[in-house]
Structure formats: structure tokens, C-alpha cells
Design goal:
The complex is a heterodimer of chains A (238) and B (181). With 238 residues, chain A is an all-alpha fold. Chain A contains 10 helices and no strands. The model of chain B has no long low-confidence stretch (mean pLDDT 84). Chain B is globular. The chains are: A mainly alpha (238), B mainly alpha (181).
Chain lengths: 238, 181
Amino acid sequence: MLVKPHKSDSPLARLDARVRLLLCLTASLSILLPPTCLILLGAGMAVLLIWGKLIRTMYRYLYKFAWLLLILVLVNTIMVNGTFALVFGLRLLLLAFSFIIFTETTSIEEIYLILRWLKCPYHLAFSFSVALQFMPVLSQEWHMVKEAQWVRGIHLQPAAGRTPRKIFTFLHGLLPFIIPVIVLTVKRAWNLTEAAYLRGIDAPFEAAVPSLCLQKRDYAFLLNWGVFYLVILGVFYR
Amino acid sequence: MKKGTFSLFQIFLIAFFSILIAITKVYLKFSLKIPGHSALFLITLLIIIRGLVPRKGTALIAGALGGLLAAGISLSARGPLDTFLCYTAAGFGVEIAALAFKNLEYFPFAAIAGLLGNMIKLGAKITLDFSLGTPLPLILAGRTYSFFTYLIFGIISGLLGALTLKALRKAGLFVYLAEKQ
């Protein structure tokens, strides 16, 4: 998961983050190719997911959305035809899995390094990567605010039913939850700003950070992926 | 601070709000089950951050970063790309409205900002539908109902954003922010 502070144990995570980004971008662009190429790409992605130990994530995705995919395929079969429905389902799956490969294997530090490599301003890349570390804290704060308001007798009623009255009651109940969270977030942002200035963020020399560097295994993977992609394109142009 | 650039505090604010945008999707699930209802949090927070940090590009950056995070922490049926594109599109919509109207605390302007953000988000979804090869009649059939619900939730979330900004002003947050800038 992207918010993991440490690297995942997947073999894909050992590759350079830019290689994974390239992989996910090329794979997602390839969904525009015709069905024969999609089947080839699907096979390639399946091998990658198995090798990358991402079967659990794949299963989690399928468990959550299999019914929706089935409905989409059924509706498309009825309204267009079976072949189109299957191709549509395959495209959807490939699109999802190509990005899951990236998000599941990339750590916060790598996101920071990619942002720096993309020439993102230092302050923005730094503060985003630091703020990411506070994700569990912020979600804990949500719960604290929720509990504090419950103690005061304010409940965030689930808006079951769709009557305008219920929706209005729900919206009215949102403000006591949103405002404390925002105030706490602003305070936390200020505390971090002070801490960053105290530690010399505006110093003329940036702190040394590890830079992204392609290794032999990255070149080997890029070569394999390139050959595989050329085969797909060869099938497309034939 | 150079003119036209963000201060470190503002950058931290945007980063934290992008996290809020992402976690509200995961932690605050509610059973409305109407297309476009996610705008209640997404657009509201985008309008709030645009109000708190009145600089060009704030909503767009918050939307894109929030989308990146939401794509990483939650699974959606169409995958992370859909999540990222939709959040960025919503941020873009709010940004355009904010550039045009400046004051998002004024209810009609906020309603237009919410509407624009949510409709551009719907536009991003339709674009993705096209890229997946869905025929036009099927998209029309599927998105006609969504069009109206997106419209309504866009306006409601814009109003909610303006209401929250007014409440924050009353609570003295803007004075606090002015001291810290």
C-alpha cells in the first residue's frame, strides 16, 4: 500500500520505483489495444502479479468487486454482445491491476524520491512525504472527534433511506464533526512548520537523500518488459 | 515568501487536507448509495482548503494529492486510475470556479464551485468510460440519472463548504491563520 512507511516484501518492490511507474503507465495505456493484444497483456500481468506476490491484493479486489464486474458484463452482454462484454471486463481488470502493482509496492520514501526526480519543488515533496507519515494520526483524530461528539450527544446518523429530510438531517449533523477536525489539522500543520523551520528547512544546502539509481535487475526487467511489449505491438500490427 | 509561491505552512496545510480527503473516503462510509454523494466530503474539503489557502492551484494540488493517496489506500471497481482522475478533475473544477469568483464564502459562488467540481468529476468518469470502449447509448443510459444526482450533490457540497468556511471564520480560524502566515 502506498501509505506503508516501509518497502513491501514483494520482489517487484526491489525494482526501481520509476521502472514500476513505467510498467503501470504502459500497461494501463495498452488497454486501448484490440482484444488479442489484451489477452496477451492479461497473461503477462497475471505472471507479474504471481511473481510479485500480489495474489492476495488481487483476491481482495476480486472479492470486493466481482459482483459489480459480473453485473457490468451481464448488462453489456444484453445491450451489446458477449464478446464486447468480456473485452470490457478484461480492460477494467487490467486497468485496475496495472495501478495496483504500483500502489501496493511503493513506499512513502519512494514517492518522495519520484517527486524529486520529477523536479517537484523540494518544499512540496518534503512536506507531502512528511504529512503522509501522519495519516494514522489523522485517522485516529477523526475517531477521537467522533467519540467526543457522541459523548456530547451529537451523532452522525447514517442517512439510510433517501428522503430529503433524512439527507438534510445528515448534512446538518456533519458540521460538528468537520470543524474540530479542520482546526486540529491546521494546528498540526503549524506545529510541523515550526519544527521544520527549527531544523533548518530553509538552509541553503539540502539534506543528503538517497537518489534513485537503476540497477542491473532494473535493466533486466526493462529489457524483458520491452521485448514482451514489442511482441504485443507485433501482434497488433500484424 | 516570494509572491505567487506557497509558504511552507500553506504546503503543509494542503498536504494535510489531501490526507483528510483520502481518509474521509475510507473512514466515513455512509449508506446514501446515490451516485455523486462522495462530493459531500471531497468537494466540501476542496472548497475549504481553497478558502483557507487563497492561492492559485491550491484546490488542484489538493485534489491531485488526495487522489494519489485515495488511489493508494482504497480499492475502487475501476482501479486507482479512476480514483486519481476523478479527484484531480474535482480539484480542477473547484479551482476554475475559485479563480473566477474569488470569494467562496458567498453561497451562490460556492454552489457554482461545487457544481463545477462535481460535473467535471462526472466528465472524467465518462471519459474513462469512452476509453474502455463503452458505446455511447450505454453511457447515456447509465449516466443520465447520475447527471442529476451529481448536479444536486455538487450544489449541496458547495453550500456545505461555504457554511463551514463561515463557521471557521466565526470560530476565529482565519485570524489565527493570518497571524501564522
